Amino acid sequence: MQIAYVTETYPPEINGVALTAARAVAHLRAAGHRVLVVRPRQAGEALCDDENEWRSHGGPIPMYPELRYGLARRGALRRRWRELKPALVHAATPGPLALAALSAARAEGIATSADFRTNFHAYSRHYRLGWLEPVVLAWLRRLHALADCSFVPTAALARDLQAAGFVRLAVSGRGVDATRFDPARRDEALRASWGAAPADPVLLHVGRLAAEKNVALALRCWERLRQERPALRLVVVGDGPQRAQLEQRHPQARFVGLRTGDELAHHYASADAFAFPSLTDTFGNVTLEALASGLAYAGFDAAAAAVHVIDGDNGRLAPPGDEAGFEQALQAALDEAAPDSRLRRRARESALAADWSAVLQRFEQRLCAVAERRAFDRVGDAALA
């Protein structure tokens, strides 16, 4: 079927949503669907408007200036949908481009779906804009009300959103490429470049370095733990507005910037433990990547960890928001971070069950079901007319 896939972030941008969107589009195309990607034109990119991609106008996102939101008039999108005749319009991100695209699709009687990927309303409190939280939540609720089905990554998030007035939700998990993220990619030369001897434990964090990601907690815990573990190294992969500040405060940590693809996989596999302190992620793909890489995982019992990590079996968890508990979980993970530990073996085994192909096949089937229901309703309406 013909699908219009609307997203405000997409490669060459580097973030979890962009990479997941690209993976979903690649799967749908490989399955025989015709997919038009609608996204904002990024800085320095050429115009594009063909059967595979349409790049709209846009601007930088406040608080995330390296990312862009898209802009398109509802009337222009209605004309576009009449020409394209998509069976379904899917919005992967909740910006103005998605709102216009879904509104235009509903006006044309086209099936609609959307992803709820990011707790944008919760981000505002980390930027001293807490008064905006109900405003942003209302915007998200308005956008998702236009979707015949909204996909969320976990059942816990679905319950929270239902309590906040969201409707027509479906749980659609995330997967991991366990071939790429594999303990076999461990690289002693890379470890040596971090200043780690073969027996030295290395703690890893991967993610955006921003206030809402709570990265400072992991660094504070590491500083305290290394008083008792002088050989403990910390490697931080990622970039963001807090990087310079964090580097200044923690000069002994190794900040290596963005890493992608096989290079990122080597960084995972060459560490021993993983710290994930975020409380705002709706899922957190890095959790599955760390588990697939066989790392001793420490995090809060939320998002992906609440689904895929069992405390004491394949990782260590703390109650959400319990900072002392997080440090204890990290300490326990480090106690079990030897390369041949049971905890690390179980981490790898649990990730092997979260295969992307099965996740994306379910997603595809649900998109087809949404489109079929709308087509059936149109036939019924025509018969009654």
UniProtKB/TrEMBL annotation:
Q: Which residue ranges does the record assign to the Glycosyltransferase subfamily 4-like N-terminal domain?
A: 14-180
Q: Does the keyword Hydrolase apply?
A: yes
Pfam families xref list: Glyco_trans_1_4, Glyco_transf_4
GO MF entries: hydrolase activity
What SUPFAM superfamilies does the record tag this protein with? UDP-Glycosyltransferase/glycogen phosphorylase
Tell me the InterPro entries matching this sequence.
Answer: Glyco_trans_4-like_N (IPR028098), Glycosyltransferase_grp1 (IPR050194)
Q: Keywords of this protein's UniProt record, alphabetized?
A: Hydrolase
Task: Please indicate if the UniProt record lists Magnesium as a keyword.
Answer: no
Q: Which residues form the signal peptide?
A: none
Gene3D superfamilies per the UniProt record, alphabetical: Glycogen Phosphorylase B
Q: What is this protein called?
A: Glycoside hydrolase
Protein species of origin: Rubrivivax gelatinosus (Rhodocyclus gelatinosus)
